[in-house]
């Protein structure tokens, strides 16, 4: 196997599993350490730079970082119950416990003569505004709704995300001199382009809910609602009650928000009915758990057949019972079981079976190409459309996803816009800035807490069920208090503190190999990767995580370190008599719009030059 090239920052970045998995590459261990030290405002600002909405995301993020978290893998080796660090809930701690951070927001450069239009005030557009306004761009954000926030405000129910948090975090951005034109729907791209904006960012989301097409649907239309429209009406106070018996169709997060909202608006018999099996439902596991915790049953393998009504008054729905069958390629078919159809009585049906993109306001002949699925044709990683000064991001770019992905798109689109308007090639994506710094304070002392905590994940406290269900606005999750936050933060393994090996000073005494509690380190002969993985001190089974492989040592052996289950405890470095191992903190800041993303300004450090991811 080739010796590892650690000058490629992607190598060390990948070891920080949570940061690698986060679409916005938030430096997770850095902010978790700050929370452990009670430095909540600092933790908030570290977050704010990359994920922009720490208070919102600390309550709602889809958390792709958590399944990746090393703590889950390490505990799996030691316990039956593997639990990642509660990364998302710790983010909320920073937001809830911080001081006033308004003075820490960026200063705004004088107007640079360039004007940007953003269509929609969701997280993607607001991220573009957050990155470009401080640079002196005049950013105008249009939204058909009166207030900013997009789906964060109109879709996510208040019992999961209080309005005050949305106001605060959208406010930080609008206060940067952004022109917000609320209540103004953009009805023509051509007319918008005629206003001579230097660039246009389309962050209008995926605002159309999929329709239910079964007999009786139109006859009982008054009692059947499209989930995302119904949630927006609930959010804005236009709908304040619901029938007692409610059927929610669909297995995604929208369905979970619909059923939990219906419970709070007076629904007594609320059911979720899904075509698929429980495991295949698209909703996040915790959303399903939360709905079930509130006494909402989920009926699987029921395919809607017809809507039943009496002269237009909804009485129920009939479902066919199916089972799943998989072919040799793993493709699923739903096969009727032959059991009798099931009639479920109801007064209201909420349809949450998916979302679609729609751009009725973009004229077909204005130069923006769309693919066969109706999505814009975009440059990979640049978010540039076929009309060079128009960019897309968030759900409008690649279909419905989540807030943190919309934020990540916003950052990348802002880089593209900044480069375009500085006369530079948008396809050249500048590398991130990286930094490695030794944490050594003494022979057995490090500037981070390396004593691995044995605690299992702490549960977030909830409001009492009867109180929570009595109000659509009362927040259900209460968040960690400072003491629990400290203990949960202590579960983090500081994966950004890297084990850095210096082959030149290694005397091959094998002391590091002997002391490592996880058997991460092996001195052995070289071989090809698949074979080498099997004959280490402990087999390296998780191929998604790299192994560090040194160049040949004096005895002809090599040193191999499996990065997968390392605890970053530093015992190898404490034990090494020659200091061949060091624990070095790796900081990676993604390149954002501004001088660092331009060719015409000083380049980032050379160690970052080979970043590929
Ligand atoms: C019910 C529901 C619950 C969700 N829960 C979560 C969650 O818990 N966590 C999570 O991460 N994600 C969640 N999502 C997904 C998340 O909200 C979206 O992925 C995200 O908001 C997309 O951001 P965006 O920037 O693309 O635009 P959006 O947030 O969709 O905002 C687009 C904005 O554009 C405006 N607009 C559209 N067309 C025009 C026009 N022509 N002129 C002017 N304005 C226009 C709309 O009014 C809207 O305000 C949820 C989605 C739904 C439907
Ligand atoms: S243990 Fe900490 S640093 Fe490591 S992946 Fe989990 S949250 Fe990230
Ligand atoms: S830091 Fe060193 S001793 Fe600790 S688990 Fe990792 S390789 Fe083993």
Automatic annotation (TrEMBL):
One annotated GO molecular function: iron-sulfur cluster binding
PANTHER family in UniProt: GLUTAMATE SYNTHASE [NADPH] SMALL CHAIN, GLUTAMATE SYNTHASE [NADPH] SMALL CHAIN-RELATED
Region feature Disordered, mapped onto this chain: 594-613
Keyword Metal-binding belongs to the record: yes
Keyword set, alphabetical order: Iron, Iron-sulfur, Metal-binding
InterPro entries: 4Fe4S_Fe-S-bd, 4Fe4S_Fe_S_CS, DPD_II, FAD/NAD-bd_sf, FAD/NAD-binding_dom, Helical_ferredxn
Protein name per the record: Glutamate synthase
